[in-house]
Amino acid sequence: MKARLNTLKGQTQQKLAALGDTTFLGDAHRGSLVLKLMTQFARDLVSSIDGTSFDISTKELCGGARVYYVFNNVWKRAYKY
Questions:
Q1: What 3-state DSSP class applies to 81?
Q2: CA atoms within 13 A on the CB side of 76
Q3: Per-residue pLDDT tens for 7-45?
Q4: Where in the numbering of this chain does the Dynamin stalk domain appear (predicted)?
Q5: Distance between CA 79 and CA 81 in Å, rounded?
Q6: Which residue from 14, 35, 56, 61 could staple onto 66, CB 3.0 to 4.6 Å apart?
Q7: Nearest-5° angle of CA 35, CA 29, CA 10?
Q8: Which residues of 2-32 are buried (b: 16+ CB within 10 A; e: fewer)?
């Protein structure tokens, strides 16, 4: 059981290291890590809506284009009747 926990701990530390700066590892920096992750999420969300994200699919509407489509086609038609 102890070996399994150590393996899981090592895997988790590797995942955290993959997120960026390793200075956020440890109990004292949990708040900093959460703040960093939330900031990155907000930045990714804004870039997705603005259309400047690198992870945009060309097979479907994404970000601001999707919001525009929903409001001008789906929502507008639903409230017309």
A1: coil
A2: 7
A3: 998 888 888 777 766 666 667 777 887 888 899 999 988
A4: 1-77
A5: 5
A6: 61
A7: 105
A8: eeeeeeeeeeeeeeeeeeeeeebeeeeeeee
Angle separating helix axes 30-50 and 2-19, nearest 10 degrees? 50
The DSSP annotation for 1-61 comes to -HHHHHHHHHHHHHHHHHHS-GGG-SGGGHHHHHHHHHHHHHHHHHHHHHT--S---SSS-
Q: Provide the pLDDT for residue 20.
A: 66
Q: Which two tokens stand for residue 20?
A: 């960026």
Residue that is written with structure tokens 């509407």 in the block: 61
